[in-house]
Amino acid sequence: MPRLLIVSNRLPITVRLAEGGAVSVEPSTGGLATGMKGPHERLGGLWIGWPGDLERLPDGARREVDRRLAELRLAGVPLSADEIARYYEGYSNAILWPLFHYSVARLPNEVSGFDTYEQVNARFADEVAARWQPGDLVWIHDYQLMLVPAMLRERVPDARIGFFLHIPFPSSEIFRLLPQRERLLEGLLGADLLGFHTATYLRHFASAALRLVGATTEVDRLRWQGREVRMGVFPMGIDAAHFSALASSPEVEELVASHRREGHQLLLGLDRLDYTKGIQRRLLAFEALLRAHPELTRKVRLVQVAVPSRENVEAYRELREEVDALVGRIHGEFATPDWSPIHYLYRGLSQAEIVALYRATDAVLVTPLRDGMNLVAKEFVAARSDGDGVLVLSEFAGAAAEMTEALLVNPYDVQRTAEVFYQALTLPEEERRTRLALLRERVMTRDVHAWAKDFIARLEQAAAKPASPALSPPGALRQALERARQAERLALLLDYDGTLVPFAATPELAAPDAALLALLRRLASRRGTEVHLVSGRRRATMERWFALLPVGLFAEHGFWGRLPGGGWTAATAAPPLTWREPVLAILREFSDRTPGTLIEEKTAGFAWHYRSADPEYGAAQAKELTLHLRSLIGDLPLEILPGDMVLEVRPRGVNKGLAVAEVRARAAADTLLLAMGDDRTDEDLFAALPAGAIAIHVGPSPSRAELRISGVRAARALLGELLA
Ligand SMILES: [Mg+2]
């Protein structure tokens, strides 16, 4: 069994200083603490996180805390009050929290605190790296630590890293508002496995990664910097058996009896006091219910528990005042001398008190505006071992993705929510029991222990996947470079786009820069060296850009060739024209309905570029277009070639291999060939090389070339070294 290093903002403990200076370190009981307890005990290893504010503890007490932490296998990352203010209360809770919950209006005009967020994340990464041993699994939790996966990857390249996001991942249109959006995505992409509560969050993340940093996704995995990152859906559960057992304890039974009154119905709201929880709209819906159903006067009561939270953050203080005022108003309008419609508690309750309320209530109202999962819904279901009770659940809680037997509401629709509250109060017993039984079956089996086990098993799998194509070791490259340097005669066959220049939004914009032109000129005048550019581009473009250089040009994947200073010749007869019109008609149709795409007409074929289209829509249209073209082409001697954000249609047999044949036919027999390219069309180039030639693939995609370098910059550097 591998060791497990758990990493979270907060360690699962509470440190208390008693009178007389004695200090106590008590384990806490949050959802995460409960879920991680088993793996933490079973797998050994450590839990790394902030132990809480220990700055004011006297020295002796500090030493006692350290001793207790070591005993519990916890490693503290101490944070100063200023760091907590900027990293935790600031960037995490005043920027990321509202944005990820779609509360865009709550963002401050100036987004600050990222520098501290970054420093604190680096401290966590340092601490994990210092504790890491070969074979360890690392599981990082939540939005406070989104940079840690990549930071740890940098420090420990072969670490096995998982990350779980406990809050929603917003639509990419919302996420992209963040000034540090790319940094956060790149931080997360350092992981081997990224876990989310729902498939929707996973899709939002994949879409953001594609649109903002160009990471292409295949269902549940994406490629990033030559690595594969897996993504998974892991709806978090609760310690269901514990809640179920507690619900039938004598202590709870007694409390339940005290809450129930004959002929009266009870509704329950239980939340951390947070603006994402929809408490105000819930109160308004309750008010609408009382207004629409005067017969409920004296018959129904709402117990609303608001657990104090983040009291140092301004937005939370304002929220508290708003809720107070609303409760007061409704109370003032509806209360009678012997009845209060709302029983409002602003404090935390013991677990037994909470479970007693779950048991006593007729319906629990879980109506957040946005919630990563919401465990109250699951705790309620687990606590109802009596098989009765109604769950009213917001569509915008992650839990709604799996708890479809609840009465689902859109909390923004206050009138309709009021009607659903009424439905909950009047639901026939048989239907209540049927719905709850289905909910219970899932909550009891898909508990927090299963959740943790699943994630850890998937992390082991994800990290065990075969290594993706690695860059060639410096030694191998140096050896090839030395052979090229020593060769009497050397012919370079170089692809252009993606090899010598990065891709531009429009192909016409990828013109060669002065540094590249100078490099090519110097290479071409090097003793015994000839340079050939082998591209899929049209003759006219190649000529405009390179006619003044003493280099060979091959356009349209070798269909056209031109020696330095000479004229263009075709490698084969021009293909029959009969197929051009129908193919062009389909391409035009797809271009018209896919904004941002363009058609490039060539002598021997066509290219359909979709680099500037919406990345998801463009890729889907390219797939669709391929199907259409296939059926049109039938037996014609044509082929469809998918390139990097481009589809090529061209005569079969016209490929970059033609250029190799042409160069070899004219060169001395002992000429060493060195070819470089980045996409599928360059594989024909590599395949046509004679034995002993040097093939270098540029970038992360699969290739038959025996050498691989990272990108355009590395390609130019390598060519530069030939001149050294
Ligand atoms: Mg290319």
The CATH fourth-level homologous superfamily of the largest domain: Glycogen Phosphorylase B
- If helices are DSSP runs of H or I spanning 4 or more residues, what is the number of helices? 25
| Gap between N and C termini | 52 Å
The CATH architecture category of the largest domain equals 3-Layer(aba) Sandwich
SSE topology sketch:
Elements: E1 4-10, E2 13-17, E3 23-27, H1 31-42, E4 45-50, H2 59-71, E5 74-76, H3 81-100, H4 114-131, E6 137-141, H5 148-155, E7 160-164, H6 172-175, H7 181-188, E8 193-196, H8 199-213, E9 217-218, E10 221-224, E11 227-233, H9 240-247, H10 250-259, E12 265-272, H11 279-292, E13 300-307, H12 314-334, E14 342-345, H13 351-360, E15 363-366, H14 376-383, E16 390-394, E17 407-409, H15 414-426, H16 429-445, H17 448-463, H18 474-486, E18 490-494, H19 514-524, E19 529-534, H20 539-546, E20 552-555, E21 560-562, E22 568-570, H21 580-593, E23 598-601, E24 606-609, H22 615-633, E25 638-642, E26 646-651, H23 657-666, E27 672-677, H24 680-687, E28 694-698, E29 707-709, H25 712-723
Parallel strand pairs: 1-4, 1-6, 4-5, 6-7, 7-8, 8-11, 12-13, 12-15, 13-14, 15-16, 16-17, 18-19, 18-27, 19-20, 27-28, 28-29
Antiparallel strand pairs: 2-3, 9-10, 10-11, 20-21, 21-22, 23-24, 24-26, 25-26
Bound molecules: magnesium ion.
Magnesium ion is lined by residues 495, 497-499, 677-679.
